[in-house]
Amino acid sequence: MKVKHNKKRNVAFVYEALVRATTVAVVKQEHDKKDKILQVLRKHFAPGTELRKDLDCYRSLYESQGVDKNTAERILRESRIQKSTIDSQKLFEQQSNLIRDINKDVSSDVFNYFVPNYRTLASIAQIFSDKTTPKSRVILENEIISIMQKSQNNEFSGELNPVDNIVYKSFVGKFNSKYEDTLLSEQKDLLTHYISSFSDNALQLKIFLNEEIGRLKDNLATARQQKEFTEDQEMLEKLDSTIKLLESFSKAEISEDILRCVLKTQKLSKELA
Questions:
Q1: pLDDT (tens digit, 9 = 90+) per residue, 148-192?
Q2: Is-contact 183 116, C-beta < 8 A?
């Protein structure tokens, strides 16, 4: 029997949707909205909360990539064990409080955001559910293990019964019509690292930013050899100025001004490629 998936009670989906909502707010420079979403994230997903524990169980599965089958099975087994130790009553209460704060302080539209790995998150929820039949759980676990063995976070290739495909397609349509075409993939990666930086003291953001700035400098240095720059001194000086600015970021504290500059440079780099 198919278990209906409640996306508002899927902690990982709500977290990822909030991350994307913040990304959109940053790009559109809606600072008040961005601050409200970050406040919700910090409040409800603080270390030690049942929501954070639940999220960690999900993330152990959907963020693990390129592992061997034995490791994937062990991660899955440990995730289910950790999930079973979570106080279900407290988790339900914290989920309710999170939903309430999103509706009150942000917008109910958050629940309609398209999350690319929605089907994966929905299937993990079915694995964790005590209402899922043994047969369905085994099938889903095999699918998750297969995904964890891949080097990239690919979606399920087949149609999975536990997922409401009509709802999924609705998410895709709504997101694509509003935001999907406005950001490059590298811009999305940068913003996602920025939004998630509160959880690890910006460690992953710093690593990503260091590598991304290096990539952009190399791309601009290559573009510098193009005829339109070598024959136009003014354009060449502007390009050199941008390269020097990127180099200065290695000694500066990460700020929104730096992020905006990198976002613009990512677009410039793409146009020059």
A1: 998 654 443 333 333 344 444 554 455 445 545 567 888 878 877
A2: no
